[in-house]
Amino acid sequence: MKTLIVYCSSHGTTEKAVSLISENLEGEVLSVDLKRDKIFFDLKDFDTVIIGGSIHAGEIQRKIKQFIHKYHDNLLEKEIALFLCCMREGELAIEQFNNAYPQELRKNAVALGLFGGEFLVSKMNFFERQVVKKVDGVVTDRSNLDVSAIMEFIIKLNSRRVLV
After folding, report:
1. Whole-angstrom distance, CA of residue 18 vs CA of residue 57
2. Does 88 fall in a domain?
3. What distance in Å separates the CA atoms of residue 139 and residue 52, rounded to the nearest whole number?
């Protein structure tokens, strides 16, 4: 099975999650950071597509939205999985996830993941630092990345590979 992981990572948190997924997922995996990588791929070449991003100012990255819009109908024909890195928890995290991904994709996904997040103040620009300080009171790096949630996501995907 061939898996494509498309994601955006602003400060490296989503990239950490993608690395864990790539290292532990069975089969051939290609991961593409839509913000940085200039890799061309054909969706037809992949059995599974995993889409992941993070929340900034309440929204998922624009490149993820554009990818979903461009390939929406093709994605509905694939085995898909969706994940989100965010610092919010509970109902607010679920709300951000639901706002990030269209309902039709969420309903068709074989795995959904909320992976926690990080405030990497040391990697933020001046404006981002000011917003995070004002909204969340955070002035130093803080991690809430949920490795167990990432591993559960991987286990769910790997168990499907055995069944197929």
Report:
1. 22
2. yes
3. 26
